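pasting input
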Amino acid sequence: MKLASLEYLEEVRRRSNADPQYLELAKGHNASYTLVLEAEPAKGVNETTVIGFTNVDGKIDEVWVGKRPTDFILTAPYGAWVDILRGKMGATQAIASRKLKTQGSFMQLLQGANRIIRWVEILRTIPTEFEGDYAQYNLPGTP
Amino acid sequence: MKAAVFRGIGQIEVTDVPMPEPEPGEVLIKVAYSGICGTDIEAFQIGMYEPGLVIGHEFAGTIVETGPGVAGWRAGDRVVVGDLIPCGQCRACRTGNLGACENIYMIGVTHDGGMAEYVRAPAIGLYRLPEGVSMRQGALVEPLTVALHGVRRSRLKPGDRAVVMGAGPIGLLTLQCVRLAGARSVIVTEVDPTRAALAARLGATVVLNPLEDNIGVSLSELTDGLGPDVIFICTGAPEPFADAISLVRKGGQIFLLGLPIQPVEADFFSVVMGELSIEGSLAGWTEFSAAIDLIAQGRVDLDALVSHEIPLDEGVVEWFGRLGAPGSGAVKVLVRIDDSVF
């Protein structure tokens, strides 16, 4: 599945909502998120992609491709998202080092560190195709 | 080697980890002392560090090895390390706004830190400790830079009246920097009796207890009815942030040095009506040289802040629990890592 495609996002929702550990950590969490994967033409990623989702009591409720008003916006170059999914860089490390820019309550984001870490672990299980030069890092995924 | 490793919310472990090796442009430091910082305590409570991180960004030690390409430093040099090291290459750095670096290196936050027997660090972040500044004092350079940076960025002028809310390590250092900056009076608010007594000893004009004193009435009396010119908030508790708006004089400044974990409700109507300024500052990476000089000249008292000194392999985990709760009776807890240096 192509990273950040609607098909990919539906799989994110399915796997996240089926993971008891994630649901326990996310319980009571209600927020909406926009993720911006910035273009890197020099690396063969020509378009910026904007996606979003909502969390309702921890469960991922709605997913979409495009721009909608949300509580949080997380923005990073495409390669930074690839680094996070490959495990080369931790999500909280990316936020703290500002590689991942945030809009919304910074502290609320960091307070959800355990939830975010488990969520990224789930994302790493999804067979994922990356764009441009990053295709060499495609994730095989696990069922 | 032994190191204090962050494992997740409420989990710190002192354990054996692989010895770090300096990469090009880096040095390897044998750590003498490392301080437990309020930011580390907040990470312990809410989990804002990456699990597996070696904590510690307030430390001093001796270089034992230099990596390829390091010039001007050699084994035996006594050093401290800047807490924010900009990359020098991103958009923010290229426009001269190094503090907003988009690829910042924060030792003990984004990269392994110095609450360990050894730590590797970029040579560009090093500062030399002169003779007469002990390793123990060196471990307190970083918190002094935080206070100094805040006071230098603030609107405080000689002859102003200042308030410091919270007399933890940063508050007590801010108090001393405010005095150095020429304030005519520095009023400190603090509930903990140990910290309040220390604030008085370190030069506070008056120390008020928000649980016992009417801060609004007292500040009015102490400032001829005007209110203080600048209020420095040096606590993470939410109440002072809201209170400060009604306490500062019209046209005054509220300067934020504490990290509020919870969102704070504030009366922005009064901010507009009083033409108030609210500003914050992050760390103190530009102030290391000045801070070290002030210590060398004996113009700040750092030793008074150290309430407890513990070895790395005993008590670190316990102290993270204690410092996160009120009434710990501690001010600054230093972890002594190399017994041969003082």
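fyi Chain A is about 35% helix and 20% strand.
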